[in-house]
Amino acid sequence: MKISATKSTLRQIRTEATAIFIPEDKNLFDTEISSLKKIFGKSILDLLKSENFHGKENETISFYTHNKLPAKRLYLAGIGKIEKVSLEIIRRAAANVAKHAEILKIKNISYRPLISGIEKNNKLPFEKIAQAIIEGSMLSLYKFDKYLTENKKDRVRIKTITLFDSLDSNIRILKNIIHKTEIICNATYLARDLANAPANEIYPETLAKIATESARKYGYSAVVWDKKRIEKEGFGGLIAVNSGSAKPPCFIILEHNPEISNPDTIVLVGKGITFDSGGISIKPSAGMSEMKMDMSGAAAVIGTMEAAARLRLPIRLIGLIPATENLPSGSAMKPGDIIKHYGGKTSEVDNTDAEGRLILADALVYAQKFDPELIIDIATLTGACVVALGNHATGMMGNDENIMARLKEAGETTYERVWQLPLFEEYEKQIKSDVADVKNVGGRWAGAITAALFLKKFFPKNKDYKWTHLDIAGTAILEEPQTYIPKGASGVGVRLLIEFLKNWKSGDHTRQ
Hints:
Leucine Aminopeptidase, subunit E, domain 1; 6-stranded mixed β-sheet
């Protein structure tokens, strides 16, 4: 798919279909329709009446132009009241157009980013509007169809998306934002592809290979530890979780801008369980196939590292991915086992299906070797977070309110929203062990919180590391599609983290 910008107008743009955004406000609506009336005559009024189109949010209509425009088809995408228009509304409007155009087997579409009344009544920046249009259209067209053999050849894909404007200054803005947004969307595609792929395609070694290939292609570094090195270094959690699998584990270390030092070192840690059966504490068979996506945190980290490198973000960024399968066998980790983690802390295994926190614990301690300003872990960690927040918000916990506020702001901008949950000390007694430093589950209540508190135990009390935990169990794996997010892997985390990271230098984040 090619995304481009061109200097043109609605009367000049030559694509199979073109789209404009129509506000619901009467004066703005009437202004837009009056300009269309000059092109199409009174027939446009009859059409709007018959289609009951008023410019409301999620209203989309299209019609043939009958040679009155170079484009064969014109889309009108409603965006609602102008003062309430958000980037997400624009994303969804652009996505609705793109998906409908693809159904009609249209190969190239164009959008006019200039929205009537937006500058006076809303103040959304032109470049942000353009980015939202690209994101909505591009992300909505994603399909994981590499294994489909029937009717695949009959599918007609949209090949080009064009943004047009009549001002040279806006074209320069569009070309810059297209380049950056394509990178972010392609990284999200990568994360979706990795998580959607079956476990017989993506397992620790192949996940490491893809990360290494990305690093080689885009100029960041990748080091992969094999099982022997993992054992030597004392990653007891990763080895224990892997003990039931015939496939060896990997520990993947990715690095962008290694020459930059603090306070610009950030470590991302992604959970890389390439298939999670639950181990001895086996999951129900219904829905277990989704557990190929239990490495969505790892996928998000790889996608973010690739995008950060391609965008040349001026920070030192490190990605750590402990990768393994969690399977039952005669050699598998058992309830009651005690694990010695990297760094020396011990944990009691009460439930082998609470495995993600065991491998993250090793990686979080290792992350401290880089003396980073911030550590963020991202993981499909708990079903409890899905119960609490559903599929529309990522659970967020951490020890720095400023960092979490900035992540929340990035979440609102990208609509990969996060919601803070508490880490009150009263919950800690639930993970107290009689035989080890900590127990890996805390009972039925507040499971997302006790999982985060387990991870917190692996930070030393005498060192002030800033840390945020993102539980994406509900947002990474979707049972029903959303406007520009398909069923299955959402690729959540990439756009959120890039938005946060690109603004890192502008925030107050230095250690106190």
